[in-house]
Predict the structure.
Amino acid sequence: MATFEYKQWRVQRSSKEPLLDFVVDGLKAAGCTILFVSEPTHAPFLITYETREGERQGILVYAFFANSKLTKNRPADEHRFQVKYGGDEKALLPIELDPAQLITTLFVGIDTERGIMVGADPVLHNMTPMFLSMEFKRQHANTIRKMGWHAWERTSWRAIGDPIEVLVGVTQDRVFDYIRFERLALGFDAGHRQLLAEKVMATSSPARSSASDHELIAELGLSESALLDLIQGARRLKMAVRGWVAEIHLETLLQSIPGVEDCRRLDGEGTPDIALRFKGSDDIFIECKNVLRAKSADGSARVDFQRTRASKTDACSRYYQPSDFSILAACLHAVTLEWEYKFIPTANLAKHTKCPGKLQSNLRVDSNWFEDPAEVLASITSSHE
């Protein structure tokens, strides 16, 4: 396997070895042959192994102890793991991702007493503050132990307008399934990350060590490895798993609307997703966002509406402003499993309460949104006359 460079921290063998053993034993339970295991005196852990089918894979594991120890002024039913390497409380944790995707990165908390592992999105947590506490509830721990696999939403750690993230918890006999999930979920938005987690839960079994019998693998006629290689090697296809498919379907929908002209997807960094003209108008810019998997209490879909990263000097740079584009399109696929959309003019969106000139990030797709693209386009062009 190719050389992979990553930053390491010296850690105590006695405190970290049980975490390493948990992962290694989970791989062995899935029939994997362990080829290499880094020393538990340094973190993160690097493990390479061979699957039952003879495929060689590797994982880089950022692992921390999870527990339910009672803490003053914290809920009694709270479980947590603390992100901590070294003693610098102001440091940030750089999480390495293998560009070739030969090695899968895991960012997890492991409760060895209860035999469970809880993982978060490593992409989202790159440059996470050290000494950060990742909390989850006892009900989640109990569900993981009962079902073997459980996914749920958690409000993230960021200071302003915390983005929604999805945690996935597994028992030790599902470690290999979790690695397979992270290989497929790399770069997914929160809604589709949870949707994929639910599909893995529904189609996998504890004894299963391969996706070779998954219905999608059978439909495409490719092995799991060949499918991942295809996604990795094709730039446009890799973009598809990060929202490109939603943009394609939206573009097709908009092109079918009478009066729409010159509808095209934009591929620039930081630009809106689609530009078009409607009945002779100037360019109208549209941003497409996937909704979250879980609905709000009133049954409406939800959009976590912000950029993935913010400037280190300006936390408000994460949020959009009304002039960035004219229409927000919410793709409902993560909820409905259909490529359908609702639309709202940015002029109708609430302003951010803490960042002047920015738009509110947590949105409900309610009755104020348009189902018919022609109606929202008409409202935009009429307001400019």
Residues 205-211 have pLDDT under 50 and may be disordered.
